[in-house]
Amino acid sequence: MMKKQRTQLTVLLILIVCALGALLLLRRSNEKAAQREEAENDDLVIDELAVSEITAFSYEQGGVKWSYDKEGDHWICQNDEQLKLDTDKIESLLDNVSSITASEQLTDVEDFAQYGLAAPSNTVTVTAGGETIIYFIGDYNSIISGYYVRKNDEATVYVVSGGIATAFSHEPQEYAAEEEAEGEAAGEAAE
After folding, report:
1. Please, are residues 97 and 55 in contact by the beta-carbon 8 Å criterion?
2. Are 102 and 158 in contact (CB under 8 A)?
3. Cβ of 12: how many Cβ atoms within 10 Å?
4. What does the domain layout of the chain look like in residue ranges?
5. Which of 19-23, 36-40, 168-172, 179-183: highest mean pLDDT?
6. 88: part of which helix (H) or strand (E)?
7. Measured between alpha carbons, how far is 184 from 30 in angstroms, rounded to an integer?
8. Alpha carbon 169 to its chain's center
């Protein structure tokens, strides 16, 4: 009887040691997978700007360059100074440049045409803290689900998922204050 119990106890101890070994291997494997995933999710920060420090911006839409300047607490569209803009809508738009991140960067680029940056689809210019930054928006790559963006005259091309690449594509009327937008709609209905 004693021999049988000793054998059972030995087998049980071996099973416990094997289970602990498997648990340690699984834990180590999970830690490595988490580190790999964290490394993959680390986007490159292209720029971080405080929306409150932005004093001017412009972009192109439909072949027209739309320019905006901040005067006091209000924004003015230089193309239509009579248009009353909604500050919240403008600040929401500017959130797209407050933190620009890229999933990938290509350095030492010489041929910008292959990224659609020789003739960009849009050029977004932002002035903040006395510094003017120009973002050139290039082609969309459906394989990597991102737009090519170039900052100033850098030889680097960034891949961004949207944000700056898609947000600056509306006419100023989209940012009009509610009473301004309602007035335009009533004027169009009367015609």
Report:
1. no
2. yes
3. 10
4. 1-42, 44-190
5. 168-172
6. helix 87-98
7. 59
8. 15
